Amino acid sequence: MAAGVLTTALTLTVTAPLAAADPVPPAGPGTSEPVPRDGAVGADAEGPQRWAPPLAGMTTGVEITEGTARLSTARDGTETGPAALRGAERQGLLDLGSHQFATPVNRIEAPTTGDVPPGTQVAVDVRGQGPDGQWTEWIPAAPGAPAILPEPTRTVAARLALIAPAGGTGPVVRSLEVRADQVPTDARTIAPRASYRVFATREGLVGGTTANGHKIVANDQFAALPSRRALSPNGKGDYSVRVCTDAGRCATVPIWDVGPWNTKDDYWNPPDQREQWKDLPQGRPQAQAAYENKHNGGRDGFGRQVKNPAGIDLADGTFYGLGLNENAFVTVDYLWTARSAALGRAITGGAGPVVERAGANATAADSGVVGDGAQVEVQCQVAGSTEQGSQGTSNLWLRTRPDRYVPAAWIQGAPPVPPCT
Fold this sequence. Notes:
Blueprint: E1 40-43, E2 49-51, E3 58-60, E4 62-65, E5 68-71, E6 89-109, E7 112-115, E8 121-128, E9 139-140, E10 147-165, E11 172-176, E12 178-181, E13 195-202, E14 223-225, E15 240-244, E16 250-258, H1 286-293, E17 310-314, H2 316-321, E18 328-334, E19 342-346, E20 354-357, E21 366-370, E22 375-378, E23 380-389, E24 392-401, E25 404-407, E26 411-412
Parallel strand pairs: 13-17, 14-16, 16-21
Antiparallel strand pairs: 1-2, 2-12, 3-6, 4-5, 5-11, 6-10, 6-12, 7-11, 8-9, 8-10, 13-18, 14-17, 15-16, 15-18, 19-22, 19-26, 20-21, 23-24, 24-25
């Protein structure tokens, strides 16, 4: 984080200026930044604006041959895809990047052409980027049911999902066109950040590949939620959670996988916005309702008997870093759901998580971690011990929650915040 950005009335000593973060850096296929892609078709005089993205980009479980996308058939002995789907379905994702339309849009249709055998699915998820650089959740744009973004935007990203029964023939997609226009909607309501107490399990699966293509390593730092709506691109933390134990220790990590149990259970959303299980109250995972109250006959969305009430899966490093030795209930803050918070991004380049401390000093008590790529909530700043990190060298520390701090030298892109008082 740039020391010059964090202006305060304090007397601060910065041994070297931190590199200022570019809020919208240039990027290519499969990234989350707003970059126009090839295939922009423009708009008719009185029709929607169009974007025909090529079938190219970052893939997970999808192979592209001569411009045609299909589920990968190669097997290398490792598991690939969402944790919730192991043995239940095959799913692959193709990140088509993002596009800037000439004028703001909020209604998105995305018809595809190809072959969809019985029992298989082709889905297109879209999302929009706000003026603050934050993305909406991924919203399905189904045939006859366009995606409606929370507010108009010029920058829209798209993602293709191919789904098939385990061992079955998958669908084939030959082309896709995004059609976008603007329709009147109610003013967006800024709700408090979603925060719920849910049951956490350890994902494990070291050596496997997550839904977004991340190769799971020992002591990894990420989490899985049971919906693609909050799946971050590989290496990014567009959707991050803060997970806290009853003892007060917290881990802030990106969402890089889908699970456990379900894949369409965005339980942190209100029932009328929830993709599936709209009969359940906000904040209650379907797996918990199935396990405790025999919801859906005690089974998940794939008909499997639910054996625990899990609403979040934690990578090994996150699970043990929280001090957990067995599955347990935790409090989860879904950081992308509030627009009022200032968010920065932890950038460690594989150096391990950023340690959150009980004071603005490297010798203060270790009270939690922030995983690489995760978005972290920033409340204010204070001078402390000088640290060297990915963003330079600085004595600034950022408060993430009451009496908890991380060194600014590891945090990129947070907006200006006031001095802590």
